[in-house]
Amino acid sequence: MARSTCSARLLIRTALLLSICFLLNPADAGRRGFRKNKHDGGEERRAQEDDEKGGRRVGRKERKRLEREKAVKFAQMKADGQDQISMTKEAAELRSYELRKKKKKGLFRRKEASLAQVLFPGVSPEEYNDNEPIPAFVELVDSQKTQLPFQYYDLPTCKEPHDAIQRRFRQRKNLGSRLMGYKLRMSPYSFPTKVNKGCTPLCFVEVGDKKLNWLRKLIDRQYRIHLTLDKLPVLMRSKELNYAMRGFPIGFKAHKASTGLEHDEYYFFNHLKFTITYREEPNEFEGVRIIGFDVHPVSIRHDFGTVEDEQKFDQLHGGAEVDQRAIEKVHGEPLSTCNQDFAPRNDPETYLSLSGDFTKPMMNVKSTKFMYSYEVHWQETDIPWSDRWDVYLVGSPDDEIHYFAIINSLMIVVFLTGAVAVIMIRTLKKDITGYNELQTIEEAQEETGWKLVHGDVFRPPQSYPMLLCVLVGSGAQIGSAFFATLLASMLRMLNPIKKGQALTAVVMLYVFCGVIGGYVSARLYKFCDAKAWKRNTIATALAFPAVIVSMFMVLNIFLRIVGAATAVSFLTVFFIFLLWGCVATPLVFVGSYFGYRADKIEVPTKTNQIARFIPEVPYYAAPPISNMIAGMLPFGSVCIELFFIMSALWLHQLYYIMGFLLAVVAILGATCAQVSCVMCYLQLCVEDHRWWWKSFFNCASAGVYLFLYSIWFLASKLELVGILPVMVYLTYMSMISLAFSLFCGTVGYLSCFWFTRRIYGAVKVD
Description:
alpha+beta; four-stranded mixed sheet; elongated
């Protein structure tokens, strides 16, 4: 019977293995209806390896050998000067190899995938027919030196086209996008599919002195214009320098030493050379897929001819669209600097200066009139659609750094776990055994250590109990919302690359988690035997949001004065207050209702009527020094990962690895809990029973370190210019530090509450 059972199991395993081999065999792909429409880069590469080996799966040793050969091959390519940013096959292979560790998905068993699957899961490629117009959209004009973005059409540029956006290109408006200033607006440039364009006049613009001064300031602060085509941000590439940057600058500044003038000169980019890379594969899909979107800006003073000819162009000023026929009607012939046979290029002799004094040979009068123009070139490539995002992550930190950050955090957790284990297993076990063996009253009176304060350890805080309950309730609400956001990202319900959508999710989840905040605050307030439950509930609902909204509204006034795109409108402010008053506050009352209805939290000891005297402790063991010492470990557990988060927030880098962030947050919570327990035990051993506020501030002080870290980041990594950009940065980092402090303090407080109930429940107290 046993032998037949074993035979049956062997047959089942063999059948399963054969089925798996059948499913993984690429030779059967055609019979199973396999198509490459989704362009899974991992499947393609595995299929290629299988083809190289005659259709059989590659073993571990063979895979290692192939990896070594690839390492040698690509190292030689880099030594030979092969770049990583061009759209050639060799550059694409080198990019794919350098980013191989990022092209994996999964939590434990990480499977090979493409960056398109990692960054935008579930998104399918768009296909376009010949001559089909593809809309390009303008985003914010921003700079890393100011963090004050502006709308594209705030610049002296061509008028916004009034064409209706097709339904498939529309994006839903959300609260996060409005708060961040994002607004979907069409660019004035036209991109029919596979239609090359020579130099094409776009519009004429007349710029006043104020706008000229503003343009010089924007150029001096390195503002960049961002466009998107088929959801691809425009890139500036340099094969010689091997770099690629999103967006293109408004202009450039030439030092007086290079121009020979008495002052620095500013030049404006008014001509754009677009290069659109596409893939066309009739056997796999119909139409054209966009693979790359590049731009090369050019500064050129277009030749309008004589003064009389220039005056004829006054009728075309004001940003109105023009074409060659309109120019020929006014000028009599195409412009010599912009026609189908002439490609503008950057030449110091023809740069478009913003000095307002055009005295060079091509123009004889002072004028602030200039013309926008552009050209479009389409290039075919063999690079698959799934690899089109590779170039955007070239040069970004490797995922191994995130692993090192987690290992660093785990070492802190292991250290604290050992300390807590020693306390719980050795010290506490010995203390509890000794206390339980006390038989006589005389021996009980001679007891020392943390048991002495058993009659006072659960005495409610005498100073500001409502404030403490409100802070803990707010921290619980923040922590729940953040955890829910990370969980939604892990489950692919939320894409962190779409920052507007992510911010909307954070705000809405925080509002819905008001139930948790109200419940926690109410239960703790009931334990304190307090009676003003209505005031406590209102304070829980309004305290933290009131601080954040007040800071935001004050900052919004200054942003509105300078005309920044991030200045929110009155309608958005009204919607925030409506969400706060009509949704968030009632949910807090609902949680508070259930919290007060629940039974009072039971403790294992009775509280004495008269509080015990607290002996003096050394200065280094008393707040605030003890709080700052305790807060170092929670901050240290996240400081490495914090650098990448700050870079994503303020240096416009991509941050999409929510799995690492969830692991770091879990480690942060464990660190706060263990630090709180250790500090609480040391405090009770010196007969100090006032642990309520201290347990909160021991971990909440990590927020102070976060704010100090943000100041270091400002001084060393950012190059902000002006008072308002620094004010914007410090205001937002103050908000983040406050939320971080409340979350850490709440974890520390609740952990300490559990710890004291646990240890005092294990001793016999008369």
